[in-house]
Amino acid sequence: MLTDSQHSPRVLIVDDVPDNLAVLHDALDESGYTVLVALDGESALQRAAQAQPDIVLLDAMMPGMDGFEVARRLKANPATSHIPIIFMTGLTDTEHLVAALAAGGVDYVTKPIKPKEVLARMQVHMQGARQVRQSRHALDAFGYASITVRASDGRLMWQTPLARELLAHYFGGPATHASQTPAPVLAWLREHLPAAREQHVEPPRLVVESGARRLSFSLHQQLGGEDNTAEADDWLIVMREVSDAALIDSLALAFKLTAREAEVLYWVIQGKINRDIGDILGASPATVKKHLERIFAKLGVETRTSAAGMALGRMRALHPQWEI
Description:
Distance between the termini: 55 Å
Helix content: 40-55%
Radius of gyration: 26 Å
CATH class of the largest domain: Alpha Beta
Mean pLDDT: 82
Number of helices: 13
Keywords: DNA-binding, Phosphoprotein, Transcription, Transcription regulation, Two-component regulatory system
Domain HTH luxR-type: 250-315
Protein name: Response regulator
Largest sheet: 5 strands, parallel
Number of strands: 10
Organism: Roseateles koreensis
Strand order of the largest sheet: 2-1-3-4-5
Domain Response regulatory: 10-126
Order of helices and strands: EHEHEHEHEHEEHHHEEEHHHHH
CATH superfamily of the largest domain: Response regulator
Structural class: alpha/beta
């Protein structure tokens, strides 16, 4: 029995028959769960999105929106797609049980409901879901965000809080509220899937730039098949952002440059021409040229190649982990 109410897991029971709710509610409450209830599909979707339960017990046959549709919508929403769903059904025909699993359920129990059986099934699936959730949020804690993408239709099945912030910055706010993967990321994934599937070759990273910030995408692994919580077409992608603001500051200190001169030298190291640097910094190529002349004087060099070489040597000495 669970005793710590502050950390007690939350379960959402969805059933249009109050008597069914009462039986389960009492058994789960006595076992230390925080119990949420919904009498119809629309209420279930709202409660799940707001309360983020650890597991959902879902009646398959309900008037209006049935349990199969509720499950499909929960799985289509990145905010609730990770929640395990156990179907409660009086239907034992194989086609109905297959439909329950196809809609996103991880398991099912048959009516009349036996509370002890439900509790045992819940423990199994909640433990697996908790481990997955903890590992994903651990990535965030160390600066590695993660997303799960369904390659077939491009749906964004899961994103950690850090991933949501990064996608908003690099691809715009609306993309983070939709369930669709940003187009460049999906194109990269689909391009390299044949090699990943057939040859188990890790594809080259996708790198997206935003000023001095870079976001890299690495294909981590294919999901599904082991715990039945994801389809085999779902792929876990790990994201890592690198900001070179500290490098720009180091350039300024090392060579006694102004902040703008350090930015210009940074982009020279990156191989950008004056026109590109001007576009990035919001300046004209002529202004960039004047900054370069002052940089050459301070570094005691005459060409951008020499300036880049000197700066690279200093950066690698100060930041051994840094790569262009």
